[in-house]
Here is the input.
Amino acid sequence: MTQTQQTATTCLLVDDHPAILASVATFLRDEGIDVVATARTGAEALRALELHSIDVAVLDQRLPDMTGVELARATAGIRPETAVLLYTGFSESALVQEALDAGVCGVVLKDAPLTDLPRAIALVAQGGSYLDPVLGGALAGTAADAPRLTPRERDVLRLLSTGQTNKEIGAQLFLSPETVRTHVHKAVVRLGVRNRTEAVAKGLREGLIA
Here is the structure.
């Protein structure tokens, strides 16, 4: 066995566009990364994660059955040792923050040079993190002016923005309705607004939630 074979990083690549999936998989293999599985949906990706030992999962954000962030959360439940990279065409700071809250190790923009992707994969496979320089600048600009919310407060506000009740939110986040109410109250105070509706509106307006 060669040194390259011994140290090759195993990778799952998930994208719903067949042409992108095929071309990126070929490029990564040419770069010495072992793409052991590809998938076009979240469900296919989860089956691949159950079947293979994967060092890094590279996930598109927009999939037919779930988002990349939702798939990242599911990946943590199936393969907590697998590092996750979000490979996306969306550069909104709120999406990046949501991805980081979900445990994603890095975000690579599809507009970036393709050579950035294997570098990011190698970095997160070694336990590091990667953030596209464009996104790093956007987050820095947002952080300078925006109020600070905890990851859990952002999770609660995101679910509130979809019209869910405290009980429904608690069931998703494994919290009691009373704990959800506490997080909502703290978010309202931090954002300097009067109620949960204004908290959601401000969170969306300022890019704190997506």
Remarks:
- The chain has eleven helices and six strands.
- The mean pLDDT is 86.
- The longest strand covers residues 34-39.
- Strands lie at 10-14, 34-39, 56-59, 83-88, 106-109, 130-131.
